Amino acid sequence: MSLWTAEEAAAATGGRVQGNWVAAGVSIDTRTIQPGDLFVALKDLRDGHDFVGQALDKGACAALVSRIPDGVDAAAPLLVVPDVLAALEALGRAGRQRMTGKVIAITGSVGKTSTKDMARAALAGQGRIHAAEASYNNHWGVPLTLARMPRDTDFAIIEIGMNHPGEIAPLSRLARPHVAMITTVAAAHLEAFGAIEGIAREKGSIFQGLEPIGHAILPEDLAVTQILRDCADDAGALVMGFGSDGQARLVQARPDDGALRCHARIGGETVDFTLHTTGMHFAMNAVGVLAALAAAGADVKEAGKRLGDWLPPKGRGAVEDLAGLRLIDDAYNANPTSLSAGLATLAGLQGGRRVAILGDMLELGEDEIAMHRGMADDPAMSQVDLVHSAGPRMRHLHDALPSAKRGIWAETAAELAGRVADLVAPGDIVLVKGSKSSKISTVVDALRKSSQTPASETKD
């Protein structure tokens, strides 16, 4: 399959091409590169130019570089440009320009990746689908996704994220979506924005990249919903709100043995779907997905049927059965909104003792202590039997909990993971949640390892 010929890539980037090659894919990582890929020598923690020789040895058809690296033959197949990241953006822009299908862009403080994956699953069977891998949603992830997009794509799903003001609008203008969806606005990256209203305006800037007569899909039930609507109106978008009210609304979500049987209205249509999770936030986002797909011209009833094929990804609320206990692995990221959703998921599962193992929530700004302490009053906390925690910020939640719920607190997640035998008991339902940098995922790893260890090996 031809994704880019040397001539096309040179025309898109303005670079100088060496060799007459054809790229079947685009890669930035020699660990996962496939034969026929164009290797992009980005600079990040390491300089990608140091790996060009390795990429070519592994079968890369060529490399996108700003210089000929040491040890690489001067006649090697290359595309030489002044700036590699700018060239990747240009390649992504050209990939978007030649594509005639519909583009759906997704952003939000919580749930971008899971919602993107939901949309991909729901669209199965309705054409050729292209979506971002993993959480490729930043200044290189979005252009990389666009550069990888086959020219005959019918639906593209682009995830757009941010850490600082001014990041979303340029990426949306690069993607030029026909439909843009915001999952929610929450207290994430407050250190960079100062207030939730600033985060809402940044999220709302995704609508600046919409194609003419584009559609804005936004949550109805937020204190900052009006800010999002104002952003959509400023962009001239057609607006559809989703949530418990609005044009796209969740009418019913009935728990059923670890699943949710859902009934929704999307515009004028009634849609029934099943999600293999008990997280109500996932059901709300599924309604938003259906609204976005309807706006993109997809068959919404068929999409509802396909939602049952979606499963929460690893580290983002997936429920798995280990030997002797049930684990909710939600250790990828955390803020008060997503932690509240995780606790609600834990509360919704039936079985044994409910145990929460929590790591620090980071980048919350000057109110971080109050936000951690305030989780003691979360409605779902009444259904949680025991809370273990790690990190200096979580110490404030630990101290605010009733003594009956107060489990082990440790300075670090590694210390907590070392006491895994003291954290849980057979039959427990366990939520592990925290910001990625808190390294609370080490507890998940310890729980999985413990479940695989024969009982005879755990005795003194």
Structural account:
With 460 residues, the protein is an alpha/beta fold. It folds into 3 domains: 4-82, Udp-n-acetylmuramoylalanyl-d-glutamate--2,6- Diaminopimelate Ligase, Chain: A, domain 1; 99-309, Mur-like, catalytic domain (UDP-N-acetylmuramoyl-L-alanine:D-glutamate ligase, 3-Layer(aba) Sandwich); 318-458, Mur ligase, C-terminal domain (Protein-Tyrosine Phosphatase, Chain A). Helix content is 32%, strand content 23%. It contains 17 helices and 22 strands. The chain has helices at residues 6-13, 52-57, 84-98, 112-122, 141-147, 168-175, 190-193, 196-204, 225-234, 280-295, 300-306, 336-348, 368-374, 394-400, 413-417, 420-423, 441-451; strands at residues 4-5, 16-18, 22-23, 25-27, 37-40, 62-65, 78-80, 102-107, 129-131, 155-159, 179-182, 215-219, 238-243, 248-256, 259-266, 269-275, 318-322, 325-330, 354-359, 386-390, 406-410, 429-433. The strands form 4 sheets. A 9-stranded mixed β-sheet has the order 9-10-8-11-12-13-14-15-16, sandwiched between helices. A hairpin with a 2-residue loop joins strand 17 (318-322) and strand 18. Helix 8 (196-204) runs parallel beside helix 9 (225-234). The longest helix is centred in the middle third of the chain and has 16 residues, at 280-295. The protein is globular. The N and C termini lie far apart (59 Å).
